[in-house]
Write a structure and sequence with these properties.
Number of domains: 2
Largest sheet: 6 strands, mixed, barrel
Strand content: 15-25%
Number of helices: 14
Mean pLDDT: 82
Distance between the termini: 30 Å
Order of helices and strands: HHEHEEEHEHEEHEHEHEHHHHHH
Helix content: 40-55%
Length: 417
């Protein structure tokens, strides 16, 4: 052990008459710890919100959507071509339209999505969120599902969200009316197209926006209801690496031809994720100020130690210690405060984050937020950046007091001794 390290660590152990300096040292360690702890927890929560939101979005939207002007007519062949592209895991056709869902209790605007129940589960995760019924019921005859307000009459199946079910007082196996904005021309003028469906499934995603506005019917039912013959809106695609969506989308369009275009999940939700990223950076900058305040405590602690150790510094210089060695002693002392505070804060931040992620202690209103529980995800890159920033600030805080100590002349330090 070098004598600079030995003396630097020795100065952290204050004597009885230096109790005040010892208290300031503990306050400095505590300040750094609180700053690091707050940063890890807050950044972990924001990362959790981002990842949870991303997972929920990708649970109901595919990684890539392939579209064509006027709709995709030869969609079976197109799906086959897309699935041969490198990086593509699965593809499924879909229909997207606006409609109105009407019951005895009222009516609400909904997003009507036509899907293939057999292949949709390979692309998105809606099947795992079905609380009652099944997506496969969309292809089942009504008499196999049971019940009905008119026995013997067959109704097409529909799957709705839990919140939509609550808002309209609709339950599993009830019937609802779907009204299309694209009406039918009659001698009396334009008449809205209305068709009765039976609720054969209820899903719960945990996202209020989806659970209160999405409804699913089979692809064939949507085509008949919207009078789309054998055309679909587009093809949904799942890939093996979500962060290569733009690259895979480009390859798909290249294989299919110029009349097609692709949109990836990052492009479709660009504004949302950009806002989350900006908010995360802003919170990092704001909370780093806590560590800066603790750094001022380190500065004041070292200044007081230097003033109290004038005699020691003078003796060391008289014995041949260089200005660089004196500077190292006080840098080591201040850096030790920063490192200890950072490590304690990191341990505390991980402990709090682990508790929050396991306990689900904080519940969020699902009609306000995109999720119902408090998400926490600790990212190793963020944690390393926080630790490096805290230690870096602590190091910078030691430079001025250490430099001042190194400039002390032995004669000045021993003048009154």
């Amino acid at each position: 052990m070098s004598y600079e390290l030995f003396i630097g660590l020795r100065y952290l152990k204050a004597k009885r008459k230096q109790t005040f300096i010892s208290i300031i040292t503990l306050i400095s360690i505590g300040g750094v710890s609180i700053g690091v702890m707050a940063l890890i927890v807050v950044i972990g929560v924001m990362t959790g919100f981002k990842e949870d939101l991303r997972d929920k979005i990708l649970g109901y939207y595919s990684h890539i959507v392939v579209l064509k002007q006027g709709g995709v007519d030869n969609y079976t062949e197109t799906v086959g071509k897309i699935e041969k592209v490198g990086g593509v895991m699965a593809a499924t056709p879909f229909i997207y339209s606006q409609a109105m869902l009407s019951t005895r209790s009222g009516s609400l605007g909904v997003v009507l999505r036509g899907i293939d129940p057999e292949t949709i589960g390979k692309v998105i995760n809606i099947g795992s969120n079905i609380k009652e019924g099944s997506l496969l019921n969309l292809n089942e005859p009504t008499d196999k599902i049971g019940g009905g307000d008119q026995p013997g009459r067959k109704y097409t199946g529909i799957v709705i969200g839990k919140e939509l079910s609550k808002n309209l007082g609709v339950f599993y196996n009830d019937t609802v009316n779907i009204i299309s904005p694209m009406g039918v021309m009659t001698p009396m003028g334009m008449v809205p197209r209305i068709k009765r469906f039976r609720v054969v499934g209820i899903f719960e995603s945990g996202m209020y926006e989806y659970d209160s506005s999405f409804v699913y019917v089979s692809l064939n039912s949507a085509q008949k209801f919207l009078n789309m013959s054998d055309i679909v809106t587009g093809i949904e695609v799942k890939i093996d690496d979500i962060y290569r969506a733009k690259e895979v989308g480009y390859r798909i369009v290249k294989d299919l031809g110029y009349q097609y275009w692709a949109r990836d999940w990052m492009e479709m939700n660009k504004n949302l994720f950009a806002a989350l990223k900006l908010e995360k950076i802003a919170m990092f900058v704001i909370l780093i100020l806590i560590i800066l305040v603790a750094a001022f405590n380190i500065v004041s602690t070292l200044i007081m130690v230097v003033m109290e150790k004038n005699k020691d510094i003078a003796i060391l210089k008289s014995m041949g210690a260089t200005a660089g060695s004196i500077m190292k002693i006080f840098i080591i002392e201040g850096l030790t405060i920063g490192v200890v505070g950072t490590l304690l804060g990191a341990v505390g931040g991980y402990a709090i984050s682990f508790f929050l992620s396991r306990s689900n202690l904080i519940k969020l209103p699902s009609d306000v937020y995109y999720m119902s529980t408090f998400p926490v995800r600790i990212d190793s890159t963020d944690s390393i950046l926080i630790v490096i920033s805290a230690i870096g600030i602590s190091f910078l805080a030691t430079l001025y007091p250490s430099w001042q100590a190194s400039r002390l002349a032995p004669a000045v330090g021993l003048r009154y001794e």
